[in-house]
Amino acid sequence: MEHLVHQFSLEVLAGENQLGRTITKARTYRPGLEFIGYFDFFPMEHVQVLGRKEITYLHQLSHDERDVRIGNVVKYHPPCFIVTSNQEGLTYLKRYCSQEGIPLLRTKESTSRFIEKYDAYMSKALAPETTIHGVCVNVFGMGILIRGKSGVGKSEIAHTLIGKGHRLVADDIVVLKKLGPDTILGTHNEKNKEFLALRSIGLLNVVRLYGRKAFQEETRIGLDIELTKWEKDSLNNELEVESIFKEYMDVPVPHIEIQLKPGRDVVGLIEAAANNWYLKQQGYSAAEEFYSRIERDIANKDNPNK
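and the corresponding structure tokens:
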């Protein structure tokens, strides 16, 4: 919980010695029915947010009634209470939280704004994750994983992409987070943030060398590219390449293989793959358009008078 205090500049009002508590749920909860005694569906594992509505209600209660209402909630020992909008008059809350060893925190943010920021941050922080060996870049706004055996040239290709205006996310170790059934986020592991390792050159800080635009904290993964050695007569030369997917934590990611050969414009192929992916997302297929042209041409030849 200490990282939340720092991340959101929270003021600690009570329970300072309990900030080591672990938060296991990404979303916050605003207790309402619980203050009138209904606890059948109370998500006690969630951080409890008290906005103006909740605090105003508590302020209006008599001392005895407040003892009952708040006492019923704190006995479930939620991870913490966070009061929004820098609200005052919280002496009674401080007392209850101190007695039960529950952190009481306060933010200047409005309730809706704080919940939006908190939920987004914790959804990523608590998301299932794994690491892979490779490079993660953002090309034309799309996250791409570049994989391949050690020494195949992944980092060199990333460097060339940066030179063309694209962005590095992570080199060597890529952290993948599952944000939903269809969403994988790629990011760095903090230690390799902004760094790119090039053989014969060494470690580069791309932000220091090329400016802030050369780096991006995270990106949604849309394409998985594997770099392999050139094998004669092994490439698929069909007009429409069959879709192949690579699964990361049960999330399918479109996958293509690019074989390496001296003189082959691999960076250009990666850019083309990114643009082609966008077109497919919009429902366009170059192969389908090509086939339709052929069909129209055949139809015109069969019916020359039409």
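(Above: one complete record from the training split.) The chain is about 35% helix and 30% strand.
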